[in-house]
Design a protein that fits this description.
It is built from 19 helices and six strands. The chain is mainly alpha-helical. The C terminus is likely disordered.
Length: 471
């Protein structure tokens, strides 16, 4: 490797980090604005860039003057070319972050909004710049005021769940930021990926549960419903805490029985998630006994909760020992793991990008994911369908929502069957395709006349005007 390129790469990376840390940690501090206010903060990165580019100018100029992909790829494939590109990124990314901070300060932007945008700019500068420009456009459209009103409504609906939402967002950003300096792997995956994914999932679940609680009648079951939401918030916070602690230790959080501490933490997670499931079951029972503001909203909430319960129950399947683990237990052999995501193959093998769902065997995370996120997907579908009908001057109908809910639950069941058969989600066979076709046909029937006659429940009317943002 080119020693000069290696030295420049290392020095330039360290040279810009103090300025980024100032912007990320204390964006509203007056000394941050004074220091970052000087364009001289990018001089070091520019000097490093010049030290690499100027001696090679005769070679680089033809490549950049008439850019062609093979020539650019060949240039970047060398250590010097990669170092040139890296210092180029460092200089312009820092300048973009500086501009964002200086432009946002007189606008009165909160550090809570600036930090994720600046972090995105540090990691992927064009995306961070795009987010900031969208934020400026939203500021003119009154989005900031709308978000404040949304936060106030969330606190009124359920303070613990509102705080959990904010905490999950902060944990997600923290995991993404810390992954820049912590390159450890667990089962072949970066150690901070799992807490980041769980923070994202909980950050989507908590506001959905709070919104549902706001729809339920205030005059009946109020304390019990609020208590159920508090249990969900507390358990989810505990789960995130344990997953984060295990990530910091550099070990797996799920199925880990390597030490007594690992086994105890996973047992606590298993017991607490059972409480969360029971709390969601209580909310689902109440939802099926309540008539909400519209039939579409009613069925979106009911089937969304049913999907979350269905998908959540697969966690108990994952915690069951695999045949190999049962054999090891019977033979009194060490069992560092009890339970698995994959079926028919070991955990940690080849998987799809981002999700890491197995591409060589079944994976119970697929139906688990589909079921859990019916809680968000079905209310959104109901809202979109309702808006379309209102645009035509027609009242919202429950039938399309019921059909969508049946399709969602049906596809979740198909994904479960596929996983239990040890089949990768990326390689469905004729049986899986046939089951999907059956779900599609049943959905069409429900969306038509067959969807008119459904189960009837004794219901209690929800208060009028409660949280009317979604039908």
């Amino acid at each position: 490797m080119d020693e000069v390129a290696s030295m420049v790469f290392s020095v330039s990376s360290r040279g810009v980090m103090p300025f980024w840390l100032l912007m990320l940690v204390a964006p509203r501090w007056r000394w941050t604005n004074r220091i970052v206010g000087s364009p001289g903060i990018v001089v070091g990165a520019i000097a490093m860039y010049a030290a690499l580019v100027v001696p090679q100018l005769a070679h680089l100029l033809p490549v950049v003057a008439r850019p062609r992909l093979p020539a650019i790829a060949a240039l970047l494939g060398t250590s010097r070319g990669a170092a040139i590109a890296w210092t180029h990124f460092l200089a312009l990314d820092l300048f973009a972050g500086r501009w964002i901070l200086l432009d946002a300060t007189p606008r009165g932007w909160s550090g809570w909004w600036l930090r994720p945008i600046l972090l995105a700019t540090l990691l992927f500068a064009p995306l961070g710049l795009g987010l900031y420009l969208l934020g400026r456009a939203g500021e003119r459209a009154g989005v900031d005021a709308a978000l404040r009103r949304l936060w106030q409504r969330g606190v009124r609906a359920h303070r613990p769940l509102a705080l959990l939402t904010v905490g999950s967002a902060a944990l997600l950003l923290g995991c993404l930021g810390w992954s820049l300096v912590d390159q450890r792997l667990v089962a072949g995956v970066p150690v901070w990926v799992k807490p980041a994914k769980f923070a994202l999932s909980v950050g989507m679940m908590a506001p959905a549960i709070a919104w549902i609680i706001a729809q339920l009648p205030a005059e009946r079951w109020r304390r019990r419903v609020y208590a159920a939401g508090t249990v969900i918030a507390g358990v989810a916070a505990l789960e995130l805490m344990i997953i984060t602690v295990q990530a910091a230790r550099g070990v797996a959080s799920h199925f880990n029985q390597t030490t007594r501490l690992d086994g105890t933490l996973f047992s606590i997670m298993g017991a607490s998630i059972s409480l969360l499931w029971l709390a969601e079951l209580y909310l689902a029972v109440r939802a099926f006994r309540t008539s909400f503001a519209s039939p579409a909203r009613s069925w979106a909430i009911r089937l969304g909760l049913a999907g979350a319960l269905f998908g959540g129950s697969f966690g108990f399947l994952m915690a069951a020992p695999t045949p190999g683990q049962r054999a090891a237990l019977q033979a009194h052999q060490p069992t560092p793991a009890l339970g698995a995501h994959a079926v028919g193959v070991p955990d940690g093998g080849p998987g799809l990008p981002v999700t890491r769902w197995s591409t060589t065997g079944g994976d119970l995370r697929v139906p688990h994911f589909l079921g859990l996120h019916a809680l968000q997907g079905l209310p959104v579908i109901a809202w979109l369908l309702s808006r379309r009908r209102r645009g035509r001057g027609q009242p919202a109908s429950a039938r399309p929502v019921i059909a969508a809910g049946a399709a969602w639950l049906g596809l979740t069941a198909v994904a479960l069957v596929q996983a239990l058969r040890g089949q990768p989600v990326s390689a469905p066979d004729a049986l899986t395709v046939g089951l999907v076709a059956m779900v599609a046909m049943a959905t069409l029937v429900l969306a038509g006349r067959g969807g008119r006659a459904l189960f009837t429940f004794r219901r209690v009317a929800a208060p009028e005007g409660a949280a009317s943002a979604v039908p």
